[in-house]
Design goal:
single chain; two-stranded antiparallel sheet; TM_pro_TauE-like; cell membrane; transmembrane; TSUP/Inactive_protease-like
C-alpha cells in the first residue's frame, strides 16, 4: 500500500511541478510527511529524509519534463546554465543547513515558505513587469521551434545571486525553486511564460543532480522509498509537460494556491504546537 500511495503522490507532484514549473517538492514533501506520520503504510520519515526523497524525485521530474520541452524547442539552454552557476553551490549550502532542523522547526519554516509561495502565485499576475533589469542587460533573442522570436534579458551577476538563493531553498526544503524563479523570470527579466517554465524545469534537473549528491553524502536518502517516487515523478513530469500545450492551467493555479495556503497554515500550526 505504501508503495502505491507514494507513487500516486509523486505522480501528482510531478504533474503539477512540470505544468507550472515548480519541480513538485511543494507537494511531495508535505504529502510524504503526512502519510508517514498518520499511517503505518511507510516507515516514519524525518524532515531530512523527506527532503532527500523529494530531491531524488525532482531529478526524474526534471528529466521527464525537460526532454519534452527540449523536443518542443522551448528551453533556453544559455539562460538555464547561467542560473545553474548560482544554483549549484546554493543547493549544497541548503542541504548542509537542512541538518539543523528538527521536525517542529521544519514544519514551522516549511509552512512559512508554502504561504509565501502561495502569496507569490496570487499576486504575480497583478505585478507589472519591471524594465530596469532588462535595460541593464545584454538583450537575449530566442526563437522557438515554431520560428517565433522573443526578446528579454537578465544581468548575469544578479541572475547568479538570485539562483544561489533559490538553490539554497531547494537544498533546504526539497522544492524545485521554480515557484520563486519563474515569477522572477517573468517580472524582472521578461521571459515569455512557456520559455520560463521550460527553462526552470531544465534548471531543476541540473541542480537536483547536485542536490541529490549532497543529500546522499549526508546519508539522508531513504532508499527503500526511492523507486516508487522516482517512477511516479517521471510519469507525472512527462504528463505535465505534454499537457502544458493543451491545458488552460489557470484553474490548476487557483487550486494550487488554495492547497499551498492550507498546507502552509497547517504546517505552521504543527510547528508552533509541537514546540510549545
Amino acid at each position: 500500500m505504501g508503495v502505491v500511495v507514494l507513487a500516486l503522490i509523486a505522480i501528482c507532484a510531478g504533474f503539477l511541478g512540470a505544468l507550472l514549473g515548480l519541480g513538485g517538492g511543494v507537494i511531495l514533501v508535505p504529502g510524504s510527511l503526512y502519510v508517514s506520520e498518520h499511517t503505518t503504510w511507510i516507515a516514519t520519515l524525518t524532515p531530512q529524509s523527506a527532503v532527500a526523497l523529494s530531491v531524488m524525485m525532482m531529478i526524474f521530474t526534471g528529466l521527464g519534463s525537460s526532454m519534452s520541452y527540449m523536443k518542443s524547442g522551448l528551453v533556453d539552454y544559455k539562460a538555464g546554465l547561467t542560473f545553474f552557476v548560482g544554483a549549484a553551490p546554493g543547493v549544497v549550502v541548503g542541504a548542509l543547513l537542512n541538518g539543523y532542523f528538527d521536525k517542529d522547526s521544519f514544519h514551522l519554516f516549511f509552512g512559512v515558505l508554502l504561504i509565501t509561495l502561495a502569496t507569490i502565485m496570487i499576486v504575480r499576475d497583478k505585478l507589472t513587469p519591471i524594465h530596469w533589469f532588462v535595460r541593464r542587460s545584454k538583450v537575449r533573442h530566442f526563437t522557438d521551434a515554431n520560428g517565433k522570436q522573443f526578446t528579454y534579458g537578465y544581468p548575469i551577476s544578479f541572475a547568479i545571486v538570485l539562483s544561489f538563493f533559490v538553490g539554497m531553498l531547494s537544498g533546504l526544503f526539497g522544492i524545485g525553486g521554480g515557484a520563486l524563479l519563474v515569477p522572477a523570470m517573468l517580472i524582472l527579466f521578461h521571459f515569455p511564460p512557456h520559455i520560463a517554465v521550460a527553462t526552470s524545469m531544465f534548471l531543476v534537473f541540473l541542480s537536483s543532480l547536485i542536490n541529490a549528491g549532497s543529500h546522499m553524502t549526508l546519508g539522508n536518502i531513504p532508499w527503500a522509498n526511492v523507486l516508487p517516487v522516482v517512477i511516479g515523478g517521471y510519469i507525472g513530469g512527462k504528463l505535465g509537460a505534454a499537457m502544458t500545450k493543451k491545458l488552460q492551467s489557470q484553474t490548476l493555479v487557483i487550486i494550487l494556491r488554495i492547497v499551498l495556503l492550507i498546507m502552509g497554515v497547517r504546517s505552521v500550526i504543527i510547528g508552533i504546537m509541537g514546540s510549545v
